[in-house]
Amino acid sequence: MPATAPPVANGICTHLGCSPSTAFTPGDPALGADWPGGFLCPCHGSTFDFAGRVFKNKPAPTNLEVPPHQFLGDIRLMIGSDELAPA
Ligand code: FES
Fold first, then answer.
1. Is 59 in the pocket of ligand 1 (CB under 6 A)?
2. Which of 2, 31, 35, 54 sits most deeply, having the most CB atoms within 10 A of its CB?
3. Ligand 1 pocket, 9 CB below 6 A?
4. Contact residues for 8 (Cβ-Cβ < 8 A; gap 6+)
5. Fold (CATH) for 1-87
6. Is 70 exceeded by the pLDDT of residue 1?
7. Is the distance from CB of 49 to CB of 36 less than 8 angstroms?
8. Which residue's CA is minimally distant from atom 1 of ligand 1?
9. Whose alpha carbon is nearest atom 4 of ligand 1?
10. C-alpha closest to that of 3 among 75, 84, 69, 82
């Protein structure tokens, strides 16, 4: 795995299946001064951090789903398979 691995998560909101959009700018005026950056589902307002963890008191019941994946090197990522995961 690379030293700074990118997050891997399905871009499907766990509320009703909409697509969260990027909201990477900390302090985004639309999200408040304490917004740390992450993802926003514009449909009903669920917010997720950069790792796909849902913030409290949002419609989404769970974090974004993480698909099976594995790093094949510093710049290669395979999604859909994780041969190292316990069976
Ligand atoms: S579908 Fe994402 S908040 Fe409703």
1. yes
2. 54
3. no
4. 66, 67, 69, 77, 79
5. Rieske Iron-sulfur Protein (2.102.10)
6. no
7. yes
8. 16
9. 44
10. 75
* pLDDT tens digit sequence for 16-36: 999 999 999 999 999 999 999
Q: Is the CB of 13 under 6 A from ligand 1?
A: yes
Phi-psi region of 63 (alpha: psi -120 to 50; beta: other; left: phi over 0): beta
Tokens of 49: 């951090």
Catalytic residue ranges: 44
* Gyration radius of the chain's alpha carbons: 14
Positive or negative torsion for Cα 12, 15, 21, 23: negative
Domain boundaries, the chain: 1-87
